[in-house]
Amino acid sequence: MSMTRQAEPAVTTPPASGPGQETDGRTARRPLALRLLARPEVGVFLGAVAVLVFFLITAPAVRDGGSMANILYQSSTIGIMALPVALLMIGGEFDLSAGVAVITSALTASMVSYQLTMNVWVGVIVALVVSLAVGLFNGWMLVRTGLPSFLVTLGTFLILQGVNLAVTKLVTGNVATDDISDMDGFDQAKAVFASSFEVGGVNVKITVVWWLVFAALATWVLLRTRYGNWIFAVGGNKDSARAVGVPVTFTKISLFMLVGFGAWFVGMHQLFSFNTVQSGEGVGQELIYIAAAVIGGCLLTGGAGSAIGPVFGAFMFGMVQQGIVYAGWNPDWFKAFLGVMLLGAVLINQWVQRTATRR
Q: 281 or 347: whose pLDDT is higher?
């Protein structure tokens, strides 16, 4: 007890150093700038601002309100999927089937509605069930077999890619679904998933609103709910998380099902935007979603990240995709530009994290 009493003053007594004097590293507060840089979303925010300024200078057409609305639209179609992918990555896993799962959802809704001559909302609901089932299968296989998510979802990717093509040809006799624009319920579904509205004379797609709503909801879940704590815990160390009572199996499976929900929503948007779906699309989009999450500060090793970071990551992708067109450059350079941007963002984030956490 005497040792404890002697140690107490050293802990509770304020340091004698005055303002501006050097203090012990354990008690010194780091500057606000370094504390902000330690946030995973700050680096990508600065990068998004830099990309925006770059294209505002090099592509004057970007300054038009309509052009910015198109950029936000492109960003939203990536960002809606990047959000659940980011949550999954924070939970320590990733999904290679996310891109083709979007097309699977759209194909299901279209063929169920058209081939069975039913209200399109029936197809929408069936597609939701199928998308959630795909996520459930991925999560169940992961926790049941212990295989890496890379192998599980790579298998699902190949299965869905083949099923999309084969079933569409078998049912419709073509590689695309039939036009459903004249079917019952189409207008109502289009209003939810693919409508637009005017803001200051500029048409803005409804997906931009959904994107921001989902981002706010994901941020609240991560920072203010027990489920958010579970996501960080299983991504950091699932064995330790299980030891303190975190339902690891439920958390992993539910995260894959969230990706399935995102795939369903984006699939419905594509279907009701274009009235038909090409069965071979979606391949490669999963890498875009993962890249947006990584650029947004989510670690491939799990346990770190945010929902706001992928919002800026998706905006950077939309900005580059449309900015190259408005600048009059060859669009074939788009993927190369994204690759450079991805590597640069990862290296910058790594440097910023090391600088911000250095004492």
A: 281
Residue 343 CA to residue 9 CA, distance in Å, equals 49
Backbone angles phi and psi of 203, in degrees to 5: -80, 125
| Cα gap 241→250, rounded to integer Å | 12
Give me the pLDDT at residue 78, please. 94
pLDDT at 8: 41
Tens-digit pLDDT profile for residues 178-198 = 999 999 999 999 999 999 998
Which residues lie closer than 8 Å to 190 by C-beta, 6 or more apart? 272, 273
Provide the pLDDT for residue 26: 42
The three-class DSSP label of residue 316 is helix
| Cα–Cα distance measured from residue 174 to residue 168, given in angstroms and rounded to the nearest whole number | 7
Residue 356 has pLDDT above 70, yes or no: no
Query: Which contacts qualify for 323-328: CB closer than 8 Å, 24 or more apart?
Result: 323/51, 323/54, 323/55, 323/58, 323/59, 323/62, 323/71, 326/55, 326/59, 326/61, 326/62, 326/67, 327/55, 327/58, 327/59, 328/59
Mean pLDDT of the chain: 85
The strand pairing partners of 198, in sequence order, are: 203
Cα separations (Å) of 237 from 226, 227, 261, 331? 16, 15, 26, 42
- Its pTM stands at 0.85
β-sheet bridge partners, residue 202:
199
In this structure, how many other beta carbons lie within 10 angstroms of the beta carbon of residue 212?
15
Q: CB under 8 Å to 153, separation ≥6 — which residues?
A: 94, 95, 96, 97, 98, 138
Q: Are 87 and 231 in contact (CB under 8 A)?
A: yes
Q: Which ranges of the chain would DSSP assign to H, the alpha helix?
A: 2-12, 32-37, 40-58, 65-90, 98-115, 120-145, 149-172, 186-193, 206-224, 226-236, 238-243, 248-274, 285-295, 308-326, 334-357
- Whether residue 337 contacts residue 291, with contact meaning beta carbons closer than 8 Å, is answered with no
- Judge whether 119 and 185 are in contact, CB under 8 Å: yes
Which candidate, 356, 314, 355, places its Cα nearest to that of 338? Answer: 314
